[in-house]
Design brief:
Length: 835
């Protein structure tokens, strides 16, 4: 049923503030939040009040009584009188008060709580653009946490794994995880309106390792005030990540207002609540390397007092890919000087939902921050793409002309209304309106150089170098004219040991043979491998001569003698080389090309970043997504698991140098000296089918260079008894009760008594229960509600709607295997205020 409420007379309440002064520079529009349930609904009416000859358009809720309305208007007046300073001014006064952190990436996952972060207490009281200029300090820097859950209050919380309470009980519901990486994350914002804005900040020195400052966030907010076309007006609920220098100038920023024109914004509760699932982002601080900066993450309610939102923040400084919304990158060689034909490519990812349609990839050419060319029709194989460029793809091929390159991934994706909307993802996003491509600074990705390198007078000759299990393959297509000579020569190689002591004191005969090439391609079409003088197998030069001249479209396979390294598990050597290919046709035309492997040398992408995220272990989950253990990467840790169970291993991210270089991963599992499993990726899943002791090694690669691995031991035992003799209910964790709006109503121990203020829907989260062997014997749960209404279900977190007043009992029973254990009970009383 629905109860129609009567209109409230405003005259007395309005008189309270009409004659109280406030110098208002513009009209302020105050909206009410429409509360809807199965029992009642609210209506809004317009009125106009005047404060010092300034009109204020007020949307008020008819369901409010006079006392509530008076309090609301007093709050509005107080907030506007006391808060008028813009962030653009006040931010300069607090930057120097933020302590300098020795590491800009420390505790980026909030696994150590608030350590290393500075709290920002702010308010959003001005409707201006840019939107962050509408914030004021209140009072500015504060000690964390902020704990005010009331209207206008500032709030932060360190979240544990689980789903968002508000979205879990919404209609339709959505299971948004509160944590993205590891076991902790930060929440900014309560679930009450009233101008509140809160944030965290870190001041640090920018280095090559943190110049691309990654982070991930998810938001839950009331419906946006933005225009339908996506344009902002400065009043919105918003989240902002921004980097500023020590004078307050913005270096880069990411702003989120939850506009419905964005197809990655979803809606629930009849469109009154917007949310965006986890998004990977970064701030480009590369223009300030060697300087101090401040990075801030801020969540804000709207400037019209009645709309609210909160943000989850995690994985700061952890390189990431935007798996929920699509992503694309581009790989460039170290040398900017180009030779043609020029192949440019990379990898891309479409949204994990599988809903993207009409994918298209183009390569954009910029000069002086202006788009001067677009190349279409790439070759796409799986998640890889490539373009073959010619000089005509650039408007000016004169020596000294340089350009920036950007890969553009576009697709259509269904939005809130179900209609397809266009989405564009770029390999490099503009920084404060400047598009500088892959390498920091404009006009430096590719250049036409005065010394262009080897010449090539054979039309349409192509060559590409690849590797497979230590064998290098040179794919050579020399066109339609017969070839009389092919030669490859080793012209450059480099070896870098991860530790000086890993280099043998005596390299032996191997020392003189480093770089020697040995081929199994003795015949190249009708050309024959020469064995005269130095041109022979196992040397720095390999030459194929007639036989007879031939059309060449073949592959040359060869190995390269690499330097020795001490046979220790902690030792490795990184090796890269360049060869010169020389081809002569029957008309004596010659083509020379320089080919390097890897194509991106260590100087461009190497292992000298911050490495493994130090405060996060490898997290291990079973097939149901339940965490069953964790182990550090150092090589000395171990974890005990059960046979014939599929486990997912999620190692902490690895940060390469520079930070924009994203790592790849290879893993292997050894039992003794035998490899029992291997693969690629992080995370990965594996099922141990035999008992015993195993060593797991996860090796990150920056470009094509292998870096220090993450190692740990897994002990697999035969199935053991699964019973209730473990430590039982976790004693330091209470039973948590939340309202439908996500606010914590109570935290009480098992067997406690609780009085709730009203009927309606509540979410309950029971503490965990540990069985006799937690890693091998995960706990399951069943719950039951008895009283004037009843219900049953499974899990430790559940929602229940109490339709009538009266007493209820909630019983949560843990199960170890099939054995029921001691239940956790709550006695609930919902008291009728009329009695």
């Amino acid at each position: 049923m629905r109860n129609i409420v009567n209109r409230v007379q405003l005259s007395d309440a309005l008189n309270l503030i009409t004659n109280k002064t406030l110098a208002m520079k513009k009209s302020i529009i105050l909206y009410c939040f429409l509360l809807v349930s199965v029992y009642s609904f609210s209506q809004c009416r317009d009125t106009v009040i005047v404060i010092n000859n300034n009109k204020v358009n007020l949307h008020y809720d008819l369901s409010w009584g006079k006392e509530k309305l008076n309090k609301f208007l007093d709050n509005v007046r107080t907030y506007h009188i006391n808060n008028s300073q813009k962030l653009s001014t006040s931010i300069k006064t607090i930057l120097s008060q933020i302590p300098l952190s020795p590491d800009g990436c420390s505790n980026g996952g909030f696994e150590s709580g608030y350590t290393g972060w500075t709290g920002l207490s702010l308010k959003h009281v001005s409707e201006v653009l840019p939107i962050e200029d509408g914030l004021s300090t209140n009072p500015g820097i504060v000690t964390l946490p902020m704990t005010n859950l009331a209207w206008g209050g500032n709030y932060t919380n360190i979240e544990s794994t689980g789903t968002d309470g508000l979205l879990s009980t919404a209609s339709p519901s959505f299971s948004m995880q509160r944590v993205k990486s590891g076991s902790k994350a930060l929440r900014l914002g309560n679930n009450e309106a009233g101008y509140g804005a809160e944030g965290v900040a870190k001041r640090f020195l920018v280095t090559a390792a943190n110049a691309i400052y990654y982070f991930q966030y998810a938001i839950v907010m009331d419906k946006s005030h933005s225009a339908a076309n996506g344009s902002m007006n400065g009043s919105e609920v918003f989240f902002i990540a921004m980097g500023v220098d020590m004078t307050g100038n913005t270096i880069d920023k990411v702003v989120e207002v939850g506009n419905p024109s964005n197809p990655f914004i979803s809606a629930t509760n009849n469109g009154s609540i917007f949310y965006r699932n986890w998004r990977c982002c970064s701030l480009d601080l590369s223009s300030r390397i060697g300087q101090e900066v401040v990075v801030m993450f801020i969540n804000s309610d709207c400037s019209r007092s009645a709309h609210k939102g909160y943000t989850y923040l995690d994985a700061v400084c952890e390189p990431c890919t935007n798996i929920n919304e699509g992503d694309i990158n581009i790989n460039l060689a170290a040398d900017s000087c180009v030779t043609f034909p020029l192949t440019i490519g990379g990898t891309f990812t479409l949204p994990a939902s599988g809903l993207a349609q009409n994918r298209n990839i183009t390569l954009q050419v910029f000069q002086n921050n202006t788009l001067v060319g677009t190349i279409t029709n790439p070759i796409i194989t799986g998640a890889n793409y490539s373009f073959t460029l010619s000089p005509s793809d650039f408007p000016n091929q004169s020596n000294g002309q340089c350009y920036d390159l950007v890969s553009r991934l576009s697709f259509d994706y269904p939005g809130i209304n179900g209609q397809l909307q266009p989405v564009v993802q770029l390999s490099s996003n503009p920084v404060m309106g400047v598009q500088d491509g892959v390498k920091p600074g404009i006009n430096n990705d590719v250049c036409f150089c005065s010394n262009p390198g080897p010449c090539c007078n054979i039309a349409n000759l192509t060559a590409a170098l690849s590797e497979n299990n230590g064998v290098y393959n040179l794919a050579l297509n020399a066109g339609s004219v017969p070839i009389q000579e092919v030669e490859i020569s080793m012209i450059d190689y480099h070896a870098v040991y991860n530790e000086p002591d890993c280099k043998p004191l005596n390299m032996g005969s191997n020392g003189g043979n480093i770089g020697n090439m040995t081929t199994t391609t003795l015949n190249l079409s009708s050309l024959v491998l020469s064995t005269t003088n130095n041109n022979q197998n196992n040397s720095h030069v390999l030459t194929w001569l007639p036989g007879s001249a031939a059309i060449i479209n073949n592959q040359i396979s060869f190995t390269v003698q690499k330097p020795a390294v001490l046979n220790l598990t902690c030792c490795n050597v990184q090796f890269w080389f360049c060869i010169k290919l020389r081809v002569k046709d029957i008309n004596c035309n010659v083509c020379e090309k320089i080919l390097c492997y890897p194509s991106t040398p260590a100087g461009v992408c190497d292992c000298k970043g911050t490495g493994w995220i130090k405060d996060k272990p490898v997290n291990i989950m079973n097939s149901t997504g339940q965490s069953v253990g964790s182990v550090p990467c150092g090589g000395t840790g171990s974890v005990t698991l059960q046979k014939n169970v599929s486990y997912q291993f999620n190692a902490p991210p690895f940060a390469c140098n520079p930070a924009r270089c994203l790592p790849t991963y290879k893993w292997k599992i050894l039992q003794g000296t035998s490899v029992v499993g291997s693969g690629t990726g992080n995370p990965f899943s594996y099922t141990f089918t035999t008992a015993g002791t195993f060593v797991v090694t996860i090796t990150p690669y920056c470009g094509n260079l292998s870096c220090d691995p993450c190692k740990f031991t897994v002990i697999i035992r035969e199935p053991q008894g699964c019973d209730c003799s473990g430590t039982g209910w976790i004693k330091d964790k209470p039973f948590v009760v939340q309202t439908a709006a996500g606010q914590v109503a109570a935290s009480i121990p098992c067997d406690g008594n609780l009085t709730l203020p009203t009927i309606g829907s509540y979410q309950f989260t029971a503490p965990g229960f540990l069985c006799s062997n937690p890693a091998a014997c995960p706990t399951s749960y069943k719950w039951e509600v008895t009283g004037s209404a009843t219900g049953t279900g499974s899990g430790t977190t559940f929602a229940f709607n109490f339709p009538v007043f009266g007493p209820y009992t909630i019983v949560v029973t843990p199960y170890c295997g099939t054995q029921p254990c001691q239940p956790c009970k709550l006695n609930i009383n919902i008291r009728d205020p009329k009695h």
